[in-house]
Amino acid sequence: MSKAEVILLDCWISPFCMRVKIALEEKGVAYESQAEDLFGGKSELLLTSNPHGKVPVLLHNGKPVSESAIIVAYIDESWSSSPLLPPCAYGRAQARFWADYIDKKVFDAGKAIFMSKGEAVEVGKKDFIEIIKTLEKALGDKDFFNGDTFGFVDIIGIAMTSWFPAYEKFGSFKLEDHCPKFSAWIKRSWQRESVAKVIPEAEKVIEFVTMFRKMMGAED
Amino acid sequence: MAEEEAVKLFGTWRSPFSRRVEIALKLKGVDFKYYEEDLTNKSHLLLKYNPVHKKIPVLVHNEKPIVESLVILEYIDETWKEGFPILPKDPCQRSHARFWARFLDEKCLPAIEEACLRSVDREKAVEEACELLKLLENELKDNKFFGGETIGLVDIVASVISCWLKAFQQVAGVELLTKEKLPKLCEWSDEFVSHAVIKGCLPPSDKLLASLRAHFETVASKELCT
């Protein structure tokens, strides 16, 4: 399969793009990443491929698929090796529920930490920890959200943790102190080649988020 | 357990999210027992089955709860595989159906609510909502339904437009879904509500109108007080 059959409209710092890259790596699918400049000017291809004009967009034989969780599901359905979802309908429903929960809660809660100041940071931190605690409960004593193997919810979740070093810095806390099991899951997931390859170094993420929050008008 | 007891649905008569699950079950010909919830006094069963969000709808199948309407719709499609297909088989078409279902819930509905409830800058809110609905309308292309020749996931999710939006705009005095602005979507709506199964699944319009009027009055009086 030539690389050009699978193209990802990408941005290195986007956790949503990371999800797609991790999924492709897990499936052993060759792909070409085309970097989008989200601040300088989006490409024509991006604007015509996705009604929202957002990354990630996966182009498979020229056909676009948008929305990261939908793309990961598409990847799972198109390349059947190493399935990312459990085989039974109920297990799949549980997985979709937690992916949806992560989608609706984690990024916004983290943003509330680094965009706030004063008392609001403490409130943001408390909310964020509560959300992670809920996820930790869902994880239980399993190695991964998917059970024994790394799967759909793990991919959806682990990409979001790429920005956690920034939340910890601006919120002055260590997630490990509050959610040890969740932190253990993060470490376990990082042992996977796909994750280690895709997620940027913490320092680079912190550097970006510092610049980003300044750009968005958060004051110190 | 009686066959009917094996599938339970907790919902409310006026929730579009609850009704879409009913539509899916009826299209599949699945028998179920329905429980009407009072959201001002949630039952212990609802709180037990959906401890995270504490919301309806909840589908309970052989005592296992499934929550979030879009998740429930996919569960129904995968569990009762032999019945009416809700999602297409092709992965690319499935991803499009999922995309537009989400678009409806995450973009269109909040914009419609803004347009109907906002008093300041209302014209702008109405314009924004219309633009989003136009994007959705384009997805119909030359088809009768979003699912093509037959109803699919997006049609079921879009039932909120064919019924609730009409009531909303009447109560709010706003013009969103009109033949001038969205001709194809209007045509789709008429076709959709006349479908034999759909007809029986939508709330009675006079009851819905009365309920929305009461809701709007509560919202409006709260605004006056702040």
Quick description:
Chain A has helices at 15-27, 44-49, 68-78, 89-115, 119-139, 152-160, 164-171, 175-178, 180-190, 193-198, 202-215, and strands spanning 6-10, 32-35, 57-60, 63-66. Chain A is an alpha+beta fold.
List the helices and strands and how they pair.
The complex is a heterodimer of chains A (220) and B (226).
Chain A: E1 6-10, H1 15-27, E2 32-35, H2 44-49, E3 57-60, E4 63-66, H3 68-78, H4 89-115, H5 119-139, H6 152-160, H7 164-171, H8 175-178, H9 180-190, H10 193-198, H11 202-215
Helix pairs in contact in A: 1-3, 1-6, 4-5, 4-6, 4-7
Chain B: H1 3-6, E1 7-11, H2 16-28, E2 33-36, H3 44-49, E3 58-61, E4 64-67, H4 69-79, H5 91-117, H6 122-138, H7 153-157, H8 159-172, H9 183-193, H10 196-199, H11 205-225
Structure description:
The complex is a heterodimer of chains A (220) and B (226). Chain A is α+β, with helices and mostly antiparallel strands. Chain A has 11 helices and 4 strands; from the N terminus they run E-H-E-H-E-E-H-H-H-H-H-H-H-H-H. In chain A, helix 1 links the parallel strand 1 (6-10) and strand 2. In chain A, helix 1 packs parallel to helix 3, helix 4 (89-115) runs antiparallel to helix 5 and helix 4 (89-115) runs parallel beside helix 6. Chain B has 11 helices and 4 strands. In chain B, helix 2 runs parallel beside helix 4 (69-79), helix 5 runs antiparallel to helix 6 (122-138) and helix 8 crosses helix 11 (205-225). In chain B, 59% of the residues lie in helices and 8% in strands. The mean pLDDT of chain B is 92. The A-B interface holds A 51, 60, 63, 65-67, 70-71, 73-74, 77-78, 89-90, 92-93, 96-97, 100-101, 134 and B 52, 61, 64, 66-68, 70-72, 74-75, 78-79, 91-92, 94-96, 98-99, 102-103, 135.
